[in-house]
Specification:
By secondary structure, this protein is α+β, with helices and mostly antiparallel strands. Helices cover 61% and strands 20% of the residues. The protein is built from seven helices and five strands; from the N terminus they run H-E-H-E-E-H-E-H-H-E-H-H. It has a five-stranded mixed sheet. Strand 2 and strand 3 form a beta hairpin. Helix 2 packs antiparallel against helix 3 and helix 4 runs antiparallel to helix 5. The longest helix has 33 residues. The N terminus is likely disordered.
């Protein structure tokens, strides 16, 4: 048992999954770099979901990447300079025992399959033939099921999975600890940016609302003129001398 454990330790079957969240100010350049580094590593994009307007700030993508297990660390290191890594987590699943168990079951099933085929050749009665064929069908189904599971595991072991979430931003988030003046400078910059965006929004609103503002201004002027005329007429009436009615 000790020897088996030692041998198993040399051939561990590991499935690695990485969750990676990144930001970038140059989205198109990031995707180009990603494709280049992925090709160098011998990997491929299994699934991608890109959202957002073309060429506009705010695009984001969710990509499932498959990278050869022995190239995983090198690929992640090469990708990191293309943007800012916000978070990264890695999970390693040891499936050695399950893998060995499936191989053992397949070996036993194939031996049973061979024995059933030999019995089928020797069977003479129809009932014997049908009985053996029925058992053989069940064994063949189990073999196909285990072979499919084994192929899936082999693919997951050979190619690690990277679930990448990338966001296009105007300013990349700083994830390293900041000093006092650096933090003040960053917050001042962010506040000035917010003020600028607020003034821009006000200007856009004013320009886009000009037709309504002109109509409102005309109505206000008209109302003021009418009020002025009414007040002037009232003053004239008040200035006239009062004449008592004759008896």
């Amino acid at each position: 048992m000790a020897n088996d454990t030692a041998n198993m330790g040399d051939t561990r079957k590991l499935i690695k999954t990485v969750e990676l969240e990144m930001q970038t100010r140059a989205y198109d350049a990031f995707i180009t770099s990603l494709q280049s580094e992925l090709a160098k590593a011998g990997g491929y994009v299994q699934q991608s979901d890109i959202r957002g307007g073309s060429g506009g700030i705010g695009r984001n993508g969710t990509l499932t990447l498959r990278v050869p297990a022995d190239e995983l660390d090198a690929f992640l290191d090469a990708l990191s300079p293309s943007g800012t890594v916000i978070s990264r987590s890695e999970e390693t699943q040891d499936v050695t025992l399950e893998y060995v168990d499936i191989e053992s079951r397949l070996k036993a099933l194939r031996a049973e399959q061979t024995a059933l085929l030999a019995l089928l050749e020797k069977a003479e009665s129809l009932s014997d033939i049908l009985t053996v064929q029925d058992k053989l069908t069940g064994v063949n189904g189990e073999i196909e099921s285990y072979e499919s599971r084994l192929r899936t595991m082999q693919t997951l072991i050979a190619y690690s999975t990277v679930n990448l979430h990338v966001y296009e931003v105007e300013k990349e988030q700083i994830v390293t600890p900041l000093g006092l003046w650096e933090e003040i400078g960053m917050k001042l910059s962010n506040n000035l940016k917010d003020v600028g965006q607020g003034l821009r929004a006000i200007f856009v609103w004013i320009v886009s609302s000009l037709p309504y503002l002109v109509i409102i201004a005309v109505l206000v002027v008209a109302v003021l003129l009418i009020l002025r005329l009414i007040m002037r007429r009232n003053r004239r009436r008040a200035a006239r001398p009062y004449c008592a009615p004759s008896p």
